[in-house]
């Protein structure tokens, strides 16, 4: 067995790991409280990249739909160039707030805030661009995949096969083994945590380079079922006690430049139920499975690792 050969015969996710009852409530991503929106407005990594992507994709006179508009900031970015923007928001408190905030902005009058369900709304006419940011690490918890899939089905039925451009247009997800410190002033607490992109994480020791486990292209059909079995060559003697999950959202493709506008979510670090001791050169096999939009715990419950000195000698954890 080669290093990159699938580890299916060694590792199996728990049966029933993709069951629908593990998903969190249908409307979870549509009821984010206002104070959390302030945090998103303060997030330069998120805001600058979305603004750049929208400025690239939205052309003069374009018609734009935003699903899950929140404060209306992304719709406002689009309105600087677009002729018309529909901003759909399900939370009545945020509907009122977004209308108030848009009134403070020069192009806010071009944005129509619609109190409606993003799972059901269709604009009165075809649109050129759809913005949808219901995104969590690994496409967990929030309903990006479900919302986009549902929109494409009803849009196709009403307006035909030609789809608008989606922002984001794709997501690339990766995983990485860690030795993670869980000592909090002497209190041992292996709990899931989030890490800021670009920050120094002194308690995290990276034991291998991240491996891509899924690529979602929103221009194509996207399945909610996500599963991976792969392996890492350990770079040092250590204890693997956590996996870091990385999600890079491709907001726009810059064709002429051969580049993309990207946004990295905060990293998600999930502890392993049973830490695994490794030596440099060991092969760490990893497997997990979950559904997009399901709970963080639904992923954590399926994490499985095994380790061996070579591909034929595996120690199961």
Describe the structure.
The chain has about 325 residues and is of the alpha+beta class. The protein folds into two domains: about 30-165, Vaccinia Virus protein VP39 (Rossmann fold), CATH 3.40.50.150; about 170-315, Hnrnp arginine n-methyltransferase1 (Distorted Sandwich). Helices cover about 20% and strands about 35% of the residues. The protein is built from six helices and 18 strands. The protein has helices at about 35-40, 45-55, 75-80, 90-100, 145-160, 295-300; strands spanning about 65, 85-90, 110-115, 130, 165, 170-180, 185, 185-190, 195, 205, 210-215, 225-235, 240-255, 260-265, 265-280, 285-290, 305-310, 315. Strands 6, 9, 10, 11, 13, 14 and 15 form a seven-stranded antiparallel sheet that branches.
Average pLDDT over all residues? 88
Report the structural category.
Answer: alpha+beta
Count of helix runs: 6
- How many domains make up the 3D coordinates? 2
> CATH superfamily membership of the largest domain, which one?
Hnrnp arginine n-methyltransferase1
CATH class of the largest domain: Mainly Beta
Low-confidence stretches: 1-24, 311-317
- Strand tally is 18
Beta-strand share of residues: 35-45%
Q: How many strands, what sense, and barrel or not for the largest sheet? A: 7 strands, antiparallel
Q: What fold name stands as the CATH topology of the largest domain?
A: Hnrnp arginine n-methyltransferase1
Task: Specify Rg, calculated over alpha carbons.
Answer: 21 Å
Order of helices and strands: HHEHEHEEHEEEEEEEEEEEEHEE
Architecture per CATH nomenclature, i.e. the level-2 architecture of the largest domain? Distorted Sandwich
């Amino acid at each position: 067995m080669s290093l990159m050969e699938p580890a299916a015969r060694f590792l199996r996710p728990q049966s029933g790991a993709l069951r629908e009852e593990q998903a969190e409530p249908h409307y979870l991503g549509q009821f984010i409280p206002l104070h959390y929106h302030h945090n998103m407005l303060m997030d330069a990594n998120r805001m600058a990249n979305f603004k750049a992507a929208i400025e690239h994709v939205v052309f003069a006179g374009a018609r734009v739909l935003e699903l899950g508009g929140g404060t209306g900031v992304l719709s406002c970015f689009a309105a600087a160039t677009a002729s018309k923007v529909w901003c759909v928001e399900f939370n009545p408190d945020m509907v009122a707030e977004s209308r108030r905030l848009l009134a403070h902005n020069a192009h806010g009058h071009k944005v129509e805030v619609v109190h409606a369900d993003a799972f059901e709304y269709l604009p009165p006419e075809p649109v050129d661009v759809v913005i949808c940011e219901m995104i969590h690490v690994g496409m967990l918890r929030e309903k990006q995949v479900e919302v986009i899939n549902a929109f494409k089905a009803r849009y196709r039925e009403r307006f035909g096969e030609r789809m608008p451009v989606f922002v984001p247009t794709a997501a690339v997800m990766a995983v990485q083994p860690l030795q993670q410190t869980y000592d909090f002033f002497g209190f041992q607490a292996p709990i899931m945590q989030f890490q800021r992109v670009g920050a120094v994480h002194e308690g995290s020791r990276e034991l291998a380079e991240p491996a891509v486990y899924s690529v979602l292209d929103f221009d194509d059909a996207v399945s909610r079922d996500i599963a991976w079995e792969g392996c890492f060559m350990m770079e040092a003697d250590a204890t693997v006690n956590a996996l870091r999950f990385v999600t890079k959202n491709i907001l726009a493709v810059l064709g002429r430049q051969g580049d993309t506008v990207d946004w990295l979510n905060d990293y998600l670090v999930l502890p392993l139920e049973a830490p695994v001791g490794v030596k440099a050169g060991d092969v760490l096999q990893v497997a997990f499975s979950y559904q997009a939009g399901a709970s963080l715990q639904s992923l954590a419950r399926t994490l499985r690792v095994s380790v061996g000195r070579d591909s034929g000698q595996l120690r199961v954890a």
